[in-house]
């Protein structure tokens, strides 16, 4: 076990967003190999649910990380059901995920492979601002049913606008944005709440629905 109190760290991060980012960049990066080994030891192969459970347990009891976790995880779970997905991703449904950090990307790739979802989850490594305009051409994507933002907070609003400009948001697209309260994304929340084409953002994940142009 790590030499710190797992109850103290999340509390400190709640009130010190920059400290959370520092912890994540310095400490958590060193734990990536341990996380991968934990998944391979604790989770069954080709069992996405057991992989999620192993990661949640690791982040809660072993090494605190910016993980959605069980409590907030119920929100995207409910949204997934709303847009007719399942954890196993039925035929015709796929996920495109962008990651800027090469180390995180490599860890994600290993976890996705262990989950048995390589053919359904498309990994992209690079900056969101660079990749969003290329998604239609590269993947043949038309528009997304669900967009989950969980990256640098100052990119939430520019990337939301860029997704719209590129025609990747359609009527009914559900927008989820993590950490809108802490460290906080006031400009993004204001945008959702002040533009009539979106429903007002709700819950701790800043859920909003695009209503159309």
Automatic annotation (TrEMBL):
Source organism superkingdom: Eukaryota
EC number in record: 2.1.1.6
**Gene3D superfamilies membership:** Vaccinia Virus protein VP39
Q: Which InterPro entries match?
A: SAM-dependent_MTases_sf (IPR029063), SAM_O-MeTrfase (IPR002935)
Q: Which GO terms describe its biological process?
A: catecholamine catabolic process; developmental process; dopamine metabolic process; methylation
| Enzyme class, first EC level, given as a word | transferase
Transmembrane segments annotated in the record for this chain: none
Q: Which UniProt keywords apply?
A: Catecholamine metabolism, Methyltransferase, Neurotransmitter degradation, S-adenosyl-L-methionine, Transferase
GO: which molecular function terms?
catechol O-methyltransferase activity
Which family is annotated?
Belongs to the class I-like SAM-binding methyltransferase superfamily. Cation-dependent O-methyltransferase family.
Name of protein: catechol O-methyltransferase
Supply the source organism's classification: Eukaryota, Metazoa, Chordata, Craniata, Vertebrata
